[in-house]
Backbone:
């Protein structure tokens, strides 16, 4: 491989170099390529996109595009799962350190972490952040369908930010799509706001201008943390951006599961059941009621022909529903390339 530096090939399978793209595409079309053709592009062997032909070692055969897509999607899924776990760990650690430092009794602009105890203090801090926001609001809104009174309560603040040129991006669970209030809200917001949905999202998060973030500090959200430490805020922005890339725009339909009789939501339920979660945990993570969750599980059992929960677990694995969707099913939304009130934490 003399004359071919490695710097041009320090990339992953999700962003092939131009030369690698040409050789791999040729290999897929023809079924194999001479080993000499791959010498200028060592990345194809390093990434296991080409491997020796067992019948003739002078030739290389390609890994199927379907297998490569599945590998890429599984890597993204594992990365996001790890990121979500790190968010939970970070929040717990931040709360512990904040407790050691004591609770501030008044707004202090320079404080990196401030504990807001009680809804009045939370609303006051967020109203102040809303008034000072000049460019962008990012929010994660877990749970299910947003109540119209919740959306209406913060509408005037959101419209005022829009008039100042503030852009808004919001992540919801897929369940939120079924609330007409959210769609009405998005119409009123126009081009200033964009919403995407996922099967599940982390705990509530609101970021203003990438400089201050608010997260809940207890289960009933009567205590919140106001975070201004640049490293913590940057980390939360990174988590949001990665989830955003995986989200499906509210205006786009959910992808088909590729399995007759099984909906997108039932596929998500099946994956969580396969992880060993109880019905109540599955319902909470997907933003639906336990009753609705159990109704979906019953339909899933009927569709898969399972007579018991144990048998359902086996059938879920046999149908390939125990992990992320296979690549061909996600192909329409994977390219190799509304908001609730921001003052309601």
Residues:
């Amino acid at each position: 491989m003399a004359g071919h530096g490695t710097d041009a090939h320090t990339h992953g399978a999700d962003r092939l170099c131009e030369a690698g793209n040409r050789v791999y595409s040729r290999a897929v079309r023809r079924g194999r390529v001479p080993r000499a053709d791959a010498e200028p592009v060592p990345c194809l062997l390093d990434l296991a996109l080409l491997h020796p032909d067992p019948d003739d070692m002078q030739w290389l055969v390609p890994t199927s595009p379907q297998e490569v897509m599945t590998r890429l999607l599984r890597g993204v899924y594992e990365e996001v799962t790890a990121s979500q776990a790190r968010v939970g760990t970070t929040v717990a650690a931040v709360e512990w350190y904040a407790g050691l430092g004591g609770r501030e009794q008044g707004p202090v602009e320079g404080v990196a972490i401030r504990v807001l105890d009680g809804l009045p203090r939370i609303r006051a801090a967020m109203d102040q952040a809303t008034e000072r926001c000049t460019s962008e609001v990012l929010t994660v809104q877990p749970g299910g369908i947003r109540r119209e009174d919740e959306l209406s309560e913060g509408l005037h603040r959101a419209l005022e930010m829009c008039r100042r040129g503030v852009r808004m991006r919001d992540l919801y669970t897929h369940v939120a799509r079924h609330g007409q209030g959210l769609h009405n809200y998005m119409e009123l917001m126009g081009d200033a706001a964009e919403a995407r949905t996922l099967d599940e999202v982390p705990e509530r998060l609101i970021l203003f201008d990438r400089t201050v973030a608010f997260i809940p500090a207890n289960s009933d959200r009567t205590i919140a943390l106001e975070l201004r430490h640049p490293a913590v805020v940057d980390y939360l922005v990174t988590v949001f951006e990665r989830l955003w890339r995986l989200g499906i725009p509210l205006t786009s339909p959910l992808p088909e599961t590729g399995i007759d009789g099984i909906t997108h939501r039932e596929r998500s339920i099946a994956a969580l059941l396969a992880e060993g979660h109880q019905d109540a945990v599955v319902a909470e993570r997907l933003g639906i009621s336990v009753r609705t969750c159990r109704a979906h599980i019953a339909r899933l059992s009927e569709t898969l022909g399972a007579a018991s929960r144990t048998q359902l677990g086996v059938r879920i694995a046999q149908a390939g529903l125990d992990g992320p969707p296979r690549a061909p099913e996600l192909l329409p939304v994977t390219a190799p390339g509304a908001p609730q009130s921001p003052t309601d934490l």
Q: What stands out?
A: The chain is about 45% helix and 15% strand. Residues 1-7, 103-108, 326-344 have pLDDT under 50 and may be disordered. The first helix runs from residue 18 to 30.
